[in-house]
Amino acid sequence: MDEVLSQNEIDALLSAITSGEMDAEELKKEEDEKRIRVYDFKRALRFSKDQIRSISRLHENYARLLTTFFATQLRTYVNINVTSVDQVPYEEFIRSVPKPTVLNIYSLEPLDGNLIMEINPNVAFALLERLLGGKGSTGSKTSSLTEIEKILLTQLFEKAEVSLKEAWSSVADIEPILEEFEENPQFMQIVAPTETVVVVSLTAMIGEVSGMINICIPHIILEPIIPKLSASYWMQTNKNKDEKSLQRMSKYLQNTDVEVKTVLGEASINIDEFLKFSVGDVIALDQAIDAPLKMAVNDEFKFLVQPGKYRHKMSVQVLEELNGVMENDE
């Protein structure tokens, strides 16, 4: 946003240029230099900040769902949070992945392309130890995974597909399927090395062990749903969810049972009078015979009513709505 100068500041600036204290050409040169911005064509930014924020919100929901899933499956403390969301060339992501590691490749029908989930060895072996009945306090080991360990991890992350589907349901109706399980990132050439991918980094705490879970999403997957990654779409979606929640809540409330009673009148007596009661005695109430009665809903006065009969049953007719707080204060 351009800065608006006051008249005194304008006069001082003109005076400085006239006296030679400031050079107009140098000011112009500095302004031109500020307009120059370095752009790396190898690191093309194909997503706006608004879209990156939407992807971050989507995976914050996924992190919560994954936390609940792992905590249920492993019966231990689990905490997963989104650390960062960046767009980088695919080759840069591959170079950052440790070797060996745990790599899951998911297809997301009907979207094209594959999603990669990289699980840090610390996290992977903590998951394995909990699955096998341990405490989940073991860090990574030097040896590679055995066939049995691969099967156990594969089965675990196949069950976690439900969480991924639910997290993405706000932007696309997908069917995640775990296609491959790999340990060497060099074998994972799912897109061109220079292709832009979004990398969502999650910090995971499994029992006493912490590590990273990285999700690599190629541009080809996100391209069909880019319009749904805008702030306006999310606001409209949340508005629709709120309206549906309100309708559902109203439906449930309409079927809720409440106690309704009409007070014919009240009277205050002392214990001595109560002990002297006998058959035929009359108790005078504080309710005038021609005055309307008060009807309470769940012990809170809501209406003024008049008594009568309807279809041979004692009934009341609502005359006026009351302020329950005022009536109760009386």
What is the percentage of strand-forming residues? 25-35%
Query: With helices defined by DSSP (H or I, 4 residues minimum), what is the helix count?
Result: 11
Total count of domains: 3
CATH fold-level name of the largest domain: Chemotaxis protein chec
Instruction: Give the rounded overall mean pLDDT.
Output: 81
CATH architecture of the largest domain: 3-Layer(aba) Sandwich
Overview of this structure, please?
With 330 residues, the protein is of the alpha+beta class. The chain has three domains: 13-38, no CATH class; 43-243, Chemotaxis protein chec (3-Layer(aba) Sandwich); 260-329, SpoA-like (Surface presentation of antigens (SPOA), Roll). Helix content is 39%, strand content 25%. Strand 9 and strand 10 (313-321) form a beta hairpin. Belongs to the FliM family.
Can you describe this structure in just a few lines?
The protein has helices spanning 7-19, 24-35, 49-74, 90-96, 121-131, 147-159, 161-168, 219-222, 231-254, 271-275, 324-329, and strands at 78-89, 102-109, 114-119, 175-182, 196-206, 209-218, 260-263, 293-297, 300-310, 313-321.
Features:
4-stranded antiparallel β-sheet, alpha+beta, 6-stranded antiparallel β-sheet, 11 helices, Surface presentation of antigens (SPOA), 39% helix, extended, cilium, Chemotaxis protein chec, disordered C terminus, 25% strand, 330 residues
List the helices and strands and how they pair.
Blueprint (H helix, E strand, L loop, with lengths): L6 H13 L4 H12 L13 H26 L3 E12 H7 L5 E8 L4 E6 L1 H11 L15 H13 L1 H8 L6 E8 L13 E11 L2 E10 H4 L8 H24 L5 E4 L7 H5 L17 E5 L2 E11 L2 E9 L2 H6 L1
Antiparallel strand pairs: 1-5, 2-3, 2-4, 3-6, 5-6, 7-8, 8-9, 9-10
Helix pairs in contact: 3-7
